[in-house]
Specification:
This protein is α+β, with helices and mostly antiparallel strands and 209 residues long. It has one domain: 3-Layer(aba) Sandwich (NADH Oxidase), CATH 3.40.109. The protein contains 9 helices and 4 strands, in the order H-H-E-H-H-E-H-H-H-E-H-E-H. A 4-stranded antiparallel β-sheet has the order 1-2-4-3. Helix 1 packs across helix 7 and helix 2 packs across helix 7. The longest helix is centred in the middle third of the chain and has 25 residues. It is globular. This is 3-hydroxypropanoate dehydrogenase. One of its GO terms (molecular function) is oxidoreductase activity. Keywords: Oxidoreductase. It comes from Arthrobacter stackebrandtii. Pfam families: Nitroreductase.
């Protein structure tokens, strides 16, 4: 795919990625609702996380927590909390990831950001700030997660249509974690449900000051 970004150059001319990589990660990748029957290996999941964790977060707090839902029993428990339109595709996906954020990320500052470890008591006393930072940065990590899944040869189907309170009672009970996204994962099967929806033009979505 050759996308013009001005009258004299193309997108690929400006990238350090080769064309195949840019296509796999962005240009040709699609949100998936169905997959091939191929199983998603534990090694693939580890690779996805190893890439995801390397993306930057504020103060390196890394609030994202992932629950991999593989077994049939766990899948049924998960699907019970999905909105009706998301039930069948979640039940049929080779792998599902429940993405949550922890509001106790400050307790790991001596490991994740030793130079900021002295601020842990301040964050301990301010739950609202912790929650805001956790949710904001976990969403950032969710974006890395989807691109990492594509880099591992997987298609991703992210969803927010679920009962978060019910899901948390089912999977996050007794933890400081709160779910915010469910992502179906699997090897792509080549099925395209519809044409790609419109993306906003550079001139509409950006400005230079």
């Amino acid at each position: 795919m050759s996308i013009a970004i001005d009258t004299e150059t193309t997108l690929h001319d400006e990238l350090i990625l080769d064309g195949d990589a840019a296509d796999a990660l962005f240009l040709e990748a699609r949100t998936a609702n169905s997959w091939s029957d191929e199983e998603v290996s534990e090694q693939a999941l580890q690779a996805v996380y190893e890439l995801t964790k390397m993306g930057p977060t504020a103060m390196n707090i890394q609030p994202l927590r992932i629950t991999w839902v593989r077994s049939a029993e766990a899948r049924e428990r998960l699907v019970a909390h999905m909105n009706e339109g998301n039930k069948a595709k979640t039940l049929g996906a080779p792998m599902v990831a429940v993405l949550s954020y922890t509001n106790e990320w400050h307790q790991l500052l001596p490991t994740t950001a030793p130079h900021m470890a002295g601020t842990a008591p301040m964050f301990e006393a301010n739950e609202e700030t912790r929650n805001h930072m956790a949710l904001t940065n976990a969403h950032l990590q969710a974006g890395y997660f989807i691109v990492a899944a594509r880099a591992a040869g997987l298609a991703a189907g992210p969803m927010t249509g679920f009962d978060a309170a019910g899901l948390d009672a089912e999977f996050n009970a007794g933890t400081p974690n709160s779910s915010f996204l469910v992502v179906n994962l699997g090897k792509p099967n080549g099925v395209v449900d519809r044409e790609r929806l419109h993306r906003l033009a550079f001139e509409l979505a950006t400005e230079t000051l």
